[in-house]
């Protein structure tokens, strides 16, 4: 019993202990319960966020880890010369893209450091992309033309544990001729800018797209540019490609064949080495541009990737303006090369005739002002006036004419208007007239101003391509074709001038004499066996009055030298205009034209080919276009 | 509480572990951080144990293995074979000791001589991954090791640190498919990128087909990758062939010959020049580096001048023609002899690179890739190179020779193919027509 009681007591005391323990442990248990609840609440909020609130975000992020988009860039079409020789090619290159699907902003600094990129510029570029709302799979191009060293850096850091956002893309980059050969004709490519994206012309492009920025590259961008493709691949955690999910092939751009003849282009380039100026060679029968050079030039290869700001600044700050295409943009006084047009205008208007003669004692006085001639030519008629380039003779011609008649014939040959050549940013030049002066200077025309205009000075300015086209049109009998660089381009109809072929023949005879007769100013353009016709021009940049007043003529203010020539005299096939800036004497520009003409005719001699395919003019000296009333002269807008 | 814990001890431990894991996952999800804390802790916790096991394995396993082998020897030869076996064990042991001493000496000599600041480490285990080639080494962040550091041996590069834990580091080996490093060839100074292939050999990529690389030639680190200091040996070319765009160059890595057990982690790299001569017995006998080693690393943007178009070639031809005739383009006095271009070669087609390279201008002499046809690929292989086996093979790749004078490409006839001039046409002038009809050109 005692034992029993003892057991009961023990049981009772144990129960009491348990009760006491329970009481004692209750707060702790409660604490752990609450803690457990808190922990699970924490977990639930995490899972809520993961599975309910933003499941798409995490799903997309998971997919991004396994799917990678790689752009497949379409190569641009090649640019070829008329014989199919390559002027602009493509070469294998590597561009670096940032995959936005794997992009981490904190990686940008080491990436910029490793690739010598401007960190701030890189961040701004990424932010621009992000703010534009571009699709996540659209990568950001950050560097072109990776060097072997940069490739090594990228390849050794693009693994999943370092910078998985780095993506190297094999592309075809532009390969332009070296030393700026034909740079102004070809132009260059570059990434479409923010400003351009806002224009209708480039509205369909995307940031990062490479487009033609100037020259043929811009003019025929639609043809040259292909359509990019894209590869979407599944990658493993190490970044290795496992499956190709989607492979949209790129469509390459179309090749473009120009009218340029590389033989002539090469020689024309060499004639202007270390000089400033321009050369334009045309086929006057078609308007095809055979060569076009502007110097100094730039290296378009600098633009093939992304031009460095340092290089861009050097180009912009260069006082010689290497980016300017002087062949179509240099608006300079034509000087004495304007005299053939004056002679034609004088004959056509009846201001002078075959019997017109003057005496040149070294100048003449008009309206109380003495106008100096560059020489003393004695008695001078039509032919000798042109051959000797007698200023006094043409002063008299100008004095006998009305300025608006001069302007009419200048415009007839194409001055004062764009030729319509298929290059961007062509300049118009200036043909002064009463209307022009009132419109621009709000002043009336004074007859004394004719005197300067008559020798290609005063307000008259032309571009080299205008000069080649104008003289070429006269050479073939008063018919002007639109200069162009691509054969299949849509052209305006040829303009036919209301001119008498007899008068044209007198002009051509004079131009023949310039090169081939004793005393002619263009003897340096003479080519044995080839009847070269031409005209020199020395255009002042500083007036005689200013020089007399003590103005010191700097090197870059010396007279410009011009020469324009064509050959052969009968049925001419080529016309070449050369502007030698600060060349002082027109006769010094004549060898430039001579070398280009020689290259043309020597090539012709080398080739044994059948009849020309483009030019189908009947044989004969000059083809007489039907006479049209002067009012019907069509001028390019 | 004690009762509860004692009664549900296993369950409690399990719950604690699960809860801890979930907490960590939640923490990682919420903070969006890449730091694998579990992995860090796990590696840190396991590494000492692994080091101990590796130590035990290294010093006892061979003995145990040999012991059990010896147990199976026939009883009749027990004594002799036991003696023989014992000798073999001794011999092997001594060889191993010698090799270990060699490696240690090599490592310590290299460590002392290299200008880079390094720290020795021992490989303690392989990493996971079906395709990856990674190992753990017994040095970590507490020893100053960081991700992105180079791992080398005196024989060459081994890999790079991809993760640094407190007491260990994960090293991606040179053979890993995602490994890459900038390299330069010793003889021809050709730059490229070494890429792991997942097997014993590595590929050197981005080397133009026109570049010359010889079988047996050594590649060194170029320093371009900002990981490996310039001048470390990489390996010897085992095979070369022209590829579609770039050469396919296979290199046998020299740093992992015979397996890498002891390595050096480059804490602070110092660039060295690539030796100009033959490799000086890669091993612990490090030859002094030539002071006048050529600085061949190109700086700045690529020079497209190395490539050329037909326009460049044609201008070079005309320039040469002018120079031959002593003609200055664009100049001349009345009556001076004009240039003669009737002998200009290849005017109607693409001139050969050889003819274009005639002028003395450096750029014109560069190999052309833009339009030159690549020769058919010819593979060259040699037995895998052995270290300390003498100078590299001088066998050249015939496909790497200067571009041959291939036949010029045919081009269509010029659109303005000229008419033959009639004799005397230049001087005879027909009468001027007054009303001849005009036939407009066909493209109007």
Strand numbers in spatial order across the main sheet of chain B? 1-2-5-4-3-12
**Helix-strand pattern of chain B, N to C?**
HHHHEEEEEEEEEEEEHHE
CATH architecture of the largest domain in chain A: 3-Layer(aba) Sandwich
User: What's the total helix number of chain A?
Assistant: 23
- Whole-number average pLDDT of chain A? 86
What's the number of helices of chain B? 6
Uncertain residue segments of chain B: 278-305, 347-444
Share of residues in strands of chain B: 15-25%
Query: Strand count, sense and closure of the main sheet of chain A?
Result: 5 strands, mixed
Describe the fold and architecture.
The complex is a heterodimer of chains A (637) and B (444). Chain A has 637 residues and is an alpha+beta fold. Chain A has two domains: 67-257, Penicillin-binding protein 2a (Domain 2), CATH 3.90.1310; 262-318 and 326-632, 3-Layer(aba) Sandwich (Beta-lactamase). Chain A is 37% helix and 18% strand. Chain A is built from 23 helices and 21 strands. In chain A, strands 2, 3, 4, 5 and 10 form a five-stranded mixed β-sheet that branches. In chain A, strands 12-11-21-20-19 form a five-stranded antiparallel β-sheet, sandwiched between helices. Chain A is elongated. The N and C termini of chain A lie far apart (134 Å). In chain A, 51% of the residues are buried. With 444 residues, chain B is of the alpha+beta class. Among the domains of chain B are: 2-31; 117-268, Thrombin, subunit H. Chain B is elongated and about 120 Å long. Chain B has helices at 2-7, 9-31, 37-71, 78-113, 310-324, 353-356; strands at residues 117-126, 134-137, 150-153, 156-164, 169-173, 180-185, 191-195, 202-205, 218-221, 233-241, 248-253, 262-268, 380-381. Chain B starts with a helix and ends in a 63-residue tail after the last strand. At the A-B interface, helix 1, strand 3, helix 5, helix 10 and helix 21 of A face helix 2, strand 4, strand 6, strand 7 and helix 5 of B.
